[in-house]
Amino acid sequence: MSRSNTIGTDRMSAGMQVVPVMVCFLITGLVPLAFVTEGYSEAVESGNLPLCSCLGAFGGVVFAASRMATSTRKHILVCALFIVTAALIIPVFSETPLAMGCGATMLGFGASAAMTALVPLLASLSSPAGLAVRLACGAACGTAVFLTMTHVAWWAETTAMPTFGLGWKVIFMLSAMLSLLALTMLAATPFEFRQEARQATKRQFPVSEAVAMACVACIGFSLLQQSMTGQTAQPPALNRSMELLSSLIGCLVAALSLRHLPARFFPVFASSLALAGTLLAALCPSAEITAVAGVFAGFACPSIMAPIIAAGIRIEGVQRADRTSSLLVGGMFAGMLPATLHLGATVASGIEICAAVYLLYYSIFRFSPELPTDFKHSDTNRR
């Protein structure tokens, strides 16, 4: 076989390895299902399920981080997907507060463990320049799933859609099938990894990136919780649908921008939109202005996570991506806590503005857009 044919075959093989990883990113869009469930289930009190999901997420991060040294990333991800599938099956058979709480906790646990293992797995399969683009595409996949499930829940509850007697809970059955698909594809795919050997740099620990991830999650989930408030079996609120659609568009724009424009451009642009959205929501609380603010922040929040995570990986390198991923995903779920505590409107607005200000500061002064000069590449295999 000629050299050109060998290179083409290697690229095709590497592309096929990325496909099941991108399918696994669909599962990340199931984390906010706790917010959707509260609008339809009469068995749970407001705020309980998101809080259970958030607390379970911290356990998932700790579990994944503790197993990284003894298990492969693929094995951790398979285990996490098993837990996610079980969590999605529980509400299908029972709607008691205990069952719904256990399901939300297990969903948060499994999804956070999966995200913690997904980031270093994708980093090992990607070149440093292409990591942020693939992360943005993965965020688009997760956003598309959540947008679809919010509308499917309403259609199943209010129309003659075949739901096998489950009503709005059909979203859990569909999500479980999606999780099983991701699990099957992942288990059937052998992986060959790319590793980077590098020396120490001045910044040894991506603390700034972890704080930025917490700020992004604080803004995004606070707006999501506000748009979900008071929603029962009604058509998904227009502002909520606009937020999710703008998030999907933002992730796609981020993928194109990070590929063709300077790396610092999109983080600065997105953080500026997030700050504008939070200021509009706080200063002009009318329904129309709030909807516009939600669109601004919705565009910025999921999409800016990709360059932040990629920057954290660049600081420590792929060989330490496990630790970096644990810190960044943990920071993200820490940022979810204010959205689950039902703080007052004034306090919540103040927290969101502070988070947006720090995000803009990070994008301008702390974001690392370039690879370190001592970043050397070598292709090796890892179990």
What does this structure look like?
The chain is mostly helical and about 375 residues long. It contains 13 helices and 2 strands. The two termini are about 25 Å apart.
SSE blueprint and pairings:
Elements: H1 3-28, H2 33-40, H3 48-67, H4 73-93, H5 97-125, H6 128-158, H7 170-187, E1 194-198, H8 207-228, H9 238-260, H10 265-283, H11 287-316, H12 321-340, H13 345-366, E2 375-379
Short recap of the structure:
By secondary structure, the protein is mostly helical. It contains 13 helices and two strands, in the order αααααααβααααααβ. It has a two-stranded antiparallel ribbon with strand order 1-2.
Alpha plus pi helix count: 13
Question: What is the CA-CA span between the terminal residues?
Answer: 27 Å
Question: Mind describing the biggest β-sheet?
Answer: 2 strands, antiparallel
The helix content, as a percent range, equals over 70%
Radius of gyration: 20 Å
Q: What is the 3D form?
A: globular
Beta-strand residue fraction: under 5%
Number of strands: 2
Arithmetic mean of pLDDT: 75
Biggest sheet strand order reads 1-2
Class from secondary-structure proportions:
mainly alpha
| Oligomer description | single chain
Order of helices and strands: HHHHHHHEHHHHHHE
Poorly predicted regions: 1-12, 194-202, 230-236, 371-383
